[in-house]
């Protein structure tokens, strides 16, 4: 069973730094293994999140043409990002995880009209899914997702995709908004250390 654990110690610049770890560990494991497991999620976010983020942002750019300049009819949730900037480490991990999950759900819609490069689109979704799976292992299943974030993505689905009948133009707006989210998540993850 997975659960949140406490504090992870790391040596950085000749001093000990406490990293609040929203990391998972298995129950009934030795203290040494628990410490290694706790630090695993912290280390993964520090060393691998940015790499995968760069990969899926590149795929997102390559799968279509230039990003549309048209405005998205749903306001970007800037206040949510400002709020999460001041949150605890584990809340930030949960936010990263939930946002990526909502993006994956968004791309699970009717994509018949999309004219993007299929291989790049598949690569994008596979990398995004890999990022989600790694983050998901760091999040307690007992934690509830951010309601405002879920509501925002439902509005995006309803007011862009459904209202525009899943047209190529609608998907371009979704791609634009997705890029904006993924860039903000990359900044958020970079600020966690």
From TrEMBL:
Q: Does the keyword Cell membrane apply?
A: no
What are its GO cellular component terms? extracellular space
Q: Per its UniProt record, what Pfam families does this chain match?
A: Interferon
Q: Which GO terms describe its molecular function?
A: cytokine activity; cytokine receptor binding
Instruction: Give the record's keywords alphabetically.
Output: Antiviral defense, Cytokine, Disulfide bond, Secreted, Signal
Q: Which InterPro entries match?
A: 4_helix_cytokine-like_core, Interferon_alpha/beta/delta
One GO process term, biological-process aspect: immune response
Mainly localized where? secreted
Q: Indicate where this protein resides in the cell.
A: Secreted
Give the family, as the similarity comment puts it: Belongs to the alpha/beta interferon family.
Name the UniProt record assigns to this protein:
Interferon a3-like
Taxonomic source organism: Salmo trutta (Brown trout)
Q: Which gene encodes it?
A: LOC115196551
């Amino acid at each position: 069973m997975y659960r949140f654990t406490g504090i992870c110690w790391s040596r950085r610049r000749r001093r000990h730094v406490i990293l609040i770890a929203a990391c998972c560990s298995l129950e009934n494991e030795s203290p040494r293994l628990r410490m290694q497991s706790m630090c695993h999620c912290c280390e993964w976010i520090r060393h691998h999140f940015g790499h995968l983020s760069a990969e899926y942002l590149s795929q997102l750019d390559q799968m279509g043409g230039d990003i549309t300049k048209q405005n998205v009819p749903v306001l970007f949730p800037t206040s949510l990002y400002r709020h999460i900037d001041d949150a605890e480490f584990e809340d930030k991990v949960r936010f990263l995880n939930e946002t990526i999950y909502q993006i994956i759900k968004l791309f699970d819609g009717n994509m018949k009209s999309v004219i993007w490069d299929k291989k790049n689109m598949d690569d994008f979704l596979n990398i995004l899914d890999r990022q989600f799976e790694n983050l998901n292992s760091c999040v307690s299943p007992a934690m509830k997702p951010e309601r405002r974030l879920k509501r925002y993505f439902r509005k995006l689905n309803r007011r862009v995709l459904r209202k525009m009948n899943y047209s190529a133009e609608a998907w371009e707006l979704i791609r634009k908004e997705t890029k904006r989210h993924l860039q903000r998540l990359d900044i958020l993850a970079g600020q966690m250390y």
